[in-house]
Design a protein that fits this description.
The protein has about 300 residues and is α/β, with parallel strands linked by helices. It contains ten helices and 14 strands.
Length: about 300
């Protein structure tokens, strides 16, 4: 089994790489930092010609915080669309028998949705705050399905909640929301910062997935790629969410920080609630155990503490 891990030097990619290494899987990382531009068909084709993967784990993406994907909306959607088309065209030319595993962020769900159910993920427009990235992920599915119809390319789509854990960016404008919060607390405690500014009002409710758990799900698919239930998009869900204010309280309890929290109401909250229905997931991965949330928070805090200063 040969695996190509696209975007393997990014946040999610590094967590998947840890799991693959633990299972001694033969894989090769491709990313912009390794000199590969996945927006370019020729560049992408050359990578697949060299690696000849049986599986492609597609974590290559232009993404950032809620604020970032709004400010850089045109670049985000254009870069991601080009990467999607380049990948599928290259796969068709070089490795048409491989299987592509595509994570789809839960921002693909309609803005009106509170509980995210797989059969309803296309039933309405996206929230404007995530339009650029969410639309590019819907486009990824549309392209994948089109290449399946014409070229019989097989793709697996995993709908994922907000992720957190080690290996994310130290820049709060690019890090995932929970990691950005933790990085702010680490910095504030180490620099005796009197105030921590947090975007939004804190009322938005989100579900959180420890990034290495996603790697474990991917590993389970590599071990059993034709498991029943993978033919349609599948939530990697736990059906449990917390408000940003609740998260701040949990994070703060792990610090001795005595400063003030200032909520920046000028920044958008995004959709009011994002919680993943887990009924299908429990049928497909009946025995899967997610990392305890408190342990995941502690591991993430330790990562940022080891990376400080930033």
């Amino acid at each position: 089994m040969k695996v190509a891990l696209l975007g393997g030097t990014g946040f999610v990619g590094k967590n998947i790489a840890e799991v693959l290494n633990e299972h001694q899987v033969d894989f090769e990382i491709g990313s912009s930092s390794t000199g590969i531009d996945f927006r370019d068909v020729e560049n992408t084709t050359a990578f697949f010609e060299r690696t000849k993967p049986d599986f492609i784990i597609n974590c290559a993406a232009h993404v950032g915080s809620l604020n970032y994907v709004t400010e850089q909306a045109a670049d985000v959607i254009a870069d991601n669309a080009r990467m999607t088309l380049a990948m599928y065209n290259a796969v068709t030319k070089v490795v048409p028998d491989c299987t592509i595993i595509n994570p789809l962020a839960n921002c693909v769900y309609p803005a009106k949705s509170n509980i995210f159910i797989e059969d309803e993920w296309l039933d309405g427009p996206l929230h404007r705050s995530v339009l650029s990235y969410g639309a590019s992920r819907r486009f990824l599915w549309e392209v994948g399905e089109s290449f399946s119809m014409q070229h019989n390319i097989r793709s697996i789509y995993l709908l994922v909640p907000n992720m957190y854990g080690p290996h994310d960016s130290k820049d709060p404008n690019k890090a995932h929301a929970l990691n950005a919060l933790i990085s702010k607390f680490v910095k504030a405690e180490n620099t005796s910062q009197p105030v921590i500014d947090i975007w939004g009002t804190g009322v938005a409710i989100r579900e959180w997935l420890y990034a290495k758990d996603f790697g474990r799900v991917v590993m389970a698919i590599l071990q059993e790629p034709h498991k029943i239930g993978l033919a349609e998009p599948l939530n990697i869900g736990q059906n449990f969410g917390l408000s940003i204010k609740e998260l701040v309280d949990i994070i703060r309890s792990n610090f001795k920080y005595s400063g003030k929290i200032k909520w920046d109401h000028s920044k958008p909250d995004g959709a009011p609630k994002k919680v993943m229905d887990d009924r299908r997931f429990r049928k497909v991965f009946a025995d899967f155990q997610f990392t305890d949330f408190n342990n995941g928070i502690k591991n993430t805090i330790e990562y940022y503490q080891n990376e400080f200063p930033y």
